[in-house]
Every structure is written in structure tokens, then in C-alpha cells.
Design brief:
The complex is a heterodimer of chains A (about 325) and B (about 290).
Chain A (H helix, E strand, L loop, with lengths): L1 H18 L3 H26 L7 H18 L4 H23 L4 H21 L1 H4 L5 E2 L7 E3 L3 E3 L4 H23 L2 H11 L1 H6 L4 H27 L1 E2 L6 H14 L6 H15 L7 H15 L3 H17 L6
Antiparallel strand pairs in A: 1-4, 2-3
Helix pairs in contact in A: 2-7, 2-10, 2-11, 2-12, 3-4, 3-5, 3-10, 4-10, 7-10, 8-10, 11-12, 11-13, 11-14
Chain B lengths: L1 H31 L6 H17 L5 H24 L7 H23 L13 E4 L2 E4 H23 L1 H11 L1 H6 L4 H23 L11 H14 L4 H21 L2 H18 L13
Antiparallel strand pairs in B: 1-2
Helix pairs in contact in B: 1-5, 1-8, 1-9, 1-10, 2-3, 2-4, 2-8, 2-9, 3-8, 5-6, 5-8, 6-8, 9-10, 9-11, 10-11
The chains are: A mainly alpha (about 325), B mainly alpha (about 290).
């Protein structure tokens, strides 16, 4: 039954651009997709491995800058720049994880935050390389993919961009799903439960945390690369640590350590402020207040609420649904 | 030579801000083990409240600072009672996420109340003083003096009064303190109120030298985190010494290298120290999440 509902959901998402043709809703959906990828990447290290990184905006920004610079300076195609961006972000994740993951708890959060600020300052001031505060504009869209017989897939329309982002979101979720449900994923969750305890069972906590952090940076870089080419413009603000805070909010509101959590969070936290246009200026108040209330009253997010109390109740009332 | 002394004076001035911020942070960390990411925005609130009191209500500058400290202490009490106390028994990560929520909330409310523009503080002691060729405005000298006074007062409070002793007791051993009859909740409230008031004092003191704007707290906050990690989370002398040291290093680096490098320096030092000693220079034991 779960498989069917998943298939239905994919079909629904694939059919969405057929009747949702207006530009703005599609734009929102594309942004939701990009933020979902980034929040899912944070979910791997924070949700499943229990290491609260506050530096994910740096990996997002490094991915964005790498793919933009490769395309503009070296004339790389998007299809080569995107994996390169992911690899470079992962490399930074590995190098930063090496010292930062030796620390625990608040120290790790502060160390990653400091790293994030260093990245932003460097990108802002290394003007010869990154064009500094002016940012990089005119980042090209993906090249069309030639297909025999049918012609080619071009990425000029919003609908095509939408499919592109959702393809990568699905890919990200698939990989994270496989990781989490593999023995490695169980190891990560053991580390989250108690690092010393996991080590006493023979788990190499440092190596596992490092791999988790590197993979997480890889997907954050993917989100950044997609963002750069969709938006066409990036600046040092693209690496600002506030983006990392936003990802944290999506994750918390949706539900930490659940696969759909980051996506539900991204949908809600993107669409609610948009539908309350008059609140747009005070969005940050809403965000902050939401975050505090969620942490106090709903520490496992909306998905946690659904799984812990709503779904069991529905099942009790309609036993026929049970299989 | 004169440049060197000017830079040292500047370093002490910046160090005063870092010390007061780091003291508040480390006090809160020592009692509640929360990295209070919202501390920078309480700093910003302190400055805006003093500015409003002086500009709109035409209050005396020093009276405005005292009132601003009192208001921020009140906010600190509320925050401790309604946000961090309910989270006490939950995983540690929840408290620091709540602190980030509070950071955003305070920034948003400040934006709504006072707008996003950079504002000039309407009052300052502008007289110039001269010693042996070094020029310093009276206001800068007052900032340095009042900060030193506040640090001494806090030290006396903690070392010489019963209330101060309870703070130290809870910082050393929460359960032990509870066993001998210390009201742990009261101590937590007190630490939060004092820490927040110190942030308000720091920002109100230097507001006339710099400008007042909603994002003004983020750099001092992060520098203060650097200081308390280097000086040992929870250590008061570490916060004071570390604060002045970081101020001096930055000011000298800024004077002789460039300001950009000065800002980078603090973070680079932090990452390096954590790489070598993951619990900070004087940190005692690792903490779990």
C-alpha cells in the first residue's frame, strides 16, 4: 500500500505542471524542491547522525559558486559543472569535518558556524576570483540533452526546470533512504544515540561521522548548484549562515530524522509566508516564533505528530484500512 | 610608536565589548549549558532601547543605560522561564535550536519596531583628551573605565555574596547544589538576567561610538563565542582575559595588516584550536549532545 501511495504522489507531482502553468506557483515549487534537497542533506548529519551543523549554507554556497565559476570561466557544461560542484562541496565537507567532528555538541555547532563565516568573508573579499559583493550574474541554464528520434530536452521553460529539480530531489531522497536503511545508517543512528556507547560496541564514530558529513555536504552542494543555474545570480549572501538556519527550521517543522520531514517543512515554511503576503516583512518573526514553539511542543515535527498520534488514531477508527 | 599605543587603546575598547559579551555568554553556559545564539540580538536590543530612551524620552545617558539593562534583564527572565526551562530535560540540541529561533524572533521584532536603517546614537561625550601625543575621546575612556567597573562588580558579587556563591555552586555541580538546598531555578533565572543585562550594558556603552542597526549583534556574538571557547566555556576569568586579548590581537592585526584579515583571524584561530584540542583551550571534559 505504501508503494502505491508513493507512486500516486510521484504521478501527481509529475502532472502538476500540466495544469499549474502560471510562472509564479512553478517558481515557488522549484524553490521548495531546491530547499528540500538542502534540508534533506542537513537531515543526514543532524537528524540521523545527531551532529548539529550550522555551516550548511557554506556547502550550499560552495556548490553554487563552483558550478557558476566553472560554467562562466571555463565554459563547462552544466552537466559537468553540477557533479563537479557536488564533489568540491564534499571535499570541503571532508576537510572541515576532519577537525570539526572531533568536537561535540555546542562546540561542533559553533565550529561549523565559524567555518561558514570564514567562507562568506573569503568569497566577499576575494574579488578577482569570485567578483566579491557584486556577485555573479548571467549563470547559464542547463544545456539541452539531445535524444535520438524525439529531438532534445531543453531547459528553457519553467516546467522543464521543475522536472529537473524534482528529478534531483527524488535522487537525493533515494540515496538518503538507502543510506539510512543500510547497516551504515543504523550505525549513524547509534552514534546519535550515544557516541561513547557506539564506540564501546566497536563503531568507529569519527570515520562514520566524517562519511556522513561528507555525503551531507555533497547533497548541499547539489542544491547550491541547482540554485545557481535556476536563479542565474549568486552573491556572498548565497553563503550566508542564515540560510543554514532556514534549513534547520524546515527540518524541525517537518520532522527531524524522517524522510518526508524536510520536504514538508520546506513546503509549509515557503508557502505559508507567501500566502500571507502582508506578513512578508515580518516573516522572520514568524520563522523564529514557529521554531521555538515547534521545539517546545512538537520536538519531532509534523511528521512525528502524524506518526505518533494522528495515524494510530485513524487506524483505530477504521480497522478496515489495516492490511 | 604613537600608532602602536593608539591601536592598543582601540584594542582595549573592542576588548571591553568582547569581555562583557563573553561574560554574559559564559555565565549562561556555565549554569544552563546552552550556547545562547540569541545573545547578540539582546546586545542589539540593549542599544536600541537606550537609543529610544535618550532620543524619544530625553533621558539622561547613564539613566538610559541602567533602564535598558533592567529591561533586558526582564526579557532574560522571561526567556529563561518560558523557553529554556521547558526544554531542560530534552536533548541538548533542542535548546540550541530554540536559541536560534529566539535569535530570529528578536531580530524580526527589532526590525518591525525600529526599522532596518543604521542609526546614529544621539548622545556622546565628544571631548578629546590628550596624553603624551595620544588622542582619545572622553567617551572611549569612559567605556573602558565603566566596563572595568562592571567586571569588578560582577566578580565581587560572585565571590562575596551568598547569591553569587549559589551561582558558583550550580555551575560546579547542579545536583550537588540542589542537594544542599540551592534553588536551581532561581539561580538559572539570575544567571540569565545578569548575562542579558551585561550584553545591554556593552552595546549601550559603545553605541555612541559605532552605529545602531538590527544586525549589529552578530559579529560581537560570534567573537564572544570564540572567546569563551578559547577561555573555557563557563570560566569567568577566561572570558575577561580572552575578551581583552582578542580585542588587542584584532586591533593590532587590523592596524598593521588589514581589517579583513582581522575579522578572519578570530575564526581561523578558533577552528585551529578546536582541531588541536576539541574542548577548547581550558575546557575540561567533552559534553554529549
Amino acid at each position: 500500500m505504501k508503494r502505491w501511495s508513493l507512486l500516486l504522489l510521484i504521478l501527481f507531482l509529475a502532472a502538476l505542471p500540466l495544469w499549474l502553468t502560471a510562472k509564479y506557483p512553478l517558481h515557488l515549487l522549484i524553490m521548495v524542491g531546491i530547499w528540500s534537497i538542502a534540508a534533506s542533506s542537513l537531515n543526514l548529519i543532524l537528524g540521523y547522525t545527531g551532529q548539529g551543523s550550522l555551516g550548511h549554507a557554506a556547502f550550499f554556497g560552495i556548490g553554487a559558486y563552483t558550478s557558476a565559476l566553472l560554467m562562466i570561466r571555463l565554459g563547462f557544461s552544466f552537466w559537468l559543472a553540477l557533479p563537479s560542484a557536488c564533489v568540491v562541496a564534499a571535499l570541503f565537507g571532508f576537510l572541515i569535518g576532519l577537525p570539526a567532528l572531533r568536537t561535540r555538541g555546542s562546540y561542533f555547532a559553533i565550529a561549523t558556524l565559524a567555518f561558514n563565516i570564514i567562507v562568506t568573508i573569503i568569497i566577499e573579499h576575494w574579488e578577482d576570483f569570485t567578483q566579491g559583493g557584486a556577485g555573479i550574474s548571467g549563470i547559464p541554464k542547463p544545456h539541452p540533452i539531445p535524444l535520438p528520434l524525439i529531438g532534445k530536452i531543453a531547459f528553457t521553460t519553467m516546467a522543464a526546470q521543475y522536472y529537473l529539480v524534482f528529478f534531483f530531489l527524488a535522487l537525493t531522497l533515494f540515496f538518503i533512504h538507502r543510506i539510512v536503511h543500510s547497516p551504515v545508517g543504523k550505525t549513524y543512528q547509534a552514534i546519535r544515540g550515544g557516541e561513547s556507547l557506539a564506540e564501546s560496541l566497536g563503531v568507529n564514530a569519527m570515520a562514520n561521522k566524517l562519511v556522513s558529513f561528507t555525503v551531507s555536504a555533497f547533497f548541499a552542494g547539489l542544491a547550491g548548484s541547482l540554485y545557481a543555474s535556476y536563479h542565474g545570480f549568486i552573491s556572498p549572501d548565497t553563503t550566508n549562515f542564515h540560510i543554514g538556519f532556514d534549513l534547520l527550521i524546515y527540518l524541525l517543522v517537518g520532522g527531524v530524522a524522517t524522510l518526508p520531514g524536510p520536504i514538508i517543512g520546506a513546503v509549509i515554511m515557503t508557502l505559508i509566508p507567501e500566502s500571507l503576503q502582508f506578513l512578508l516583512e515580518y516573516r522572520i518573526i514568524l520563522y523564529g516564533g514557529f521554531l521555538i514553539l515547534v521545539v517546545i511542543f512538537l520536538p519531532r515535527g509534523l511528521v512525528g505528530l502524524w506518526r505518533a498520534s494522528l495515524w494510530p488514531r485513524i487506524r483505530m477508527r477504521f480497522p478496515a484500512n489495516q492490511r | 610608536m604613537i600608532l602602536l599605543f593608539q591601536q592598543i587603546l582601540n584594542g582595549i575598547l573592542i576588548g571591553s565589548v568582547y569581555s562583557l559579551m563573553a561574560l554574559g555568554l559564559t555565565l549562561i553556559y556555565g549554569i544552563l549549558h546552552i550556547p545562547n545564539f540569541a545573545h547578540g540580538n539582546k546586545y542589539m536590543w540593549g542599544a536600541f532601547i537606550s537609543l529610544t530612551l535618550v532620543a524619544v524620552f530625553k533621558l539622561n545617558y547613564w539613566l538610559a543605560i541602567l533602564l535598558s539593562m533592567a529591561i533586558l534583564a526582564g526579557i532574560g527572565l522571561l526567556v529563561e522561564r518560558f523557553i529554556f526551562r521547558p526544554l531542560q530535560d530534552q536533548p541538548h540540541i533542542n535548546s540550541f535550536i530554540a536559541a536560534i529561533g529566539l535569535l530570529l524572533l528578536l531580530e524580526g521584532v527589532a526590525f518591525a519596531l525600529w526599522g532596518g536603517e543604521w542609526q546614529r546614537f544621539p548622545f556622546a561625550y565628544r571631548q578629546n583628551l590628550n596624553f603624551f601625543g595620544i588622542t582619545i575621546t572622553l567617551h572611549r575612556l569612559l567605556v573602558i573605565g565603566v566596563t572595568a567597573l562592571l567586571i569588578i562588580l560582577l566578580q565581587l558579587f560572585i565571590k562575596k555574596t551568598t547569591w553569587g556563591w549559589t551561582i558558583e555552586a550550580v555551575a560546579q555541580d547542579r545536583q550537588g547544589a540542589q542537594l544542599v538546598g540551592v534553588n536551581v531555578y532561581l539561580v538559572s533565572s539570575m544567571a540569565f538576567a545578569i548575562g542579558t543585562a551585561l550584553a545591554a550594558a556593552a552595546s549601550s556603552l559603545v553605541a555612541p561610538i559605532y552605529l545602531v542597526y538590527p544586525a549589529m549583534g552578530s559579529l560581537p556574538l560570534i567573537k564572544a563565542f570564540v572567546v569563551i571557547i578559547l577561555g573555557g566555556m563557563g570560566s569567568l576569568p577566561g572570558a575577561v582575559i580572552g575578551g581583552y586579548l582578542l580585542g588587542l590581537i584584532e586591533s593590532l592585526a587590523g592596524g598593521y595588516l588589514s581589517m579583513v584579515y582581522a575579522d578572519l583571524l578570530a575564526f581561523a584561530v578558533l577552528v585551529t584550536v578546536l582541531a588541536i584540542k576539541p574542548t577548547g583551550l581550558f575546557g575540561k571534559k567533552a559534553e554529549g549532545t
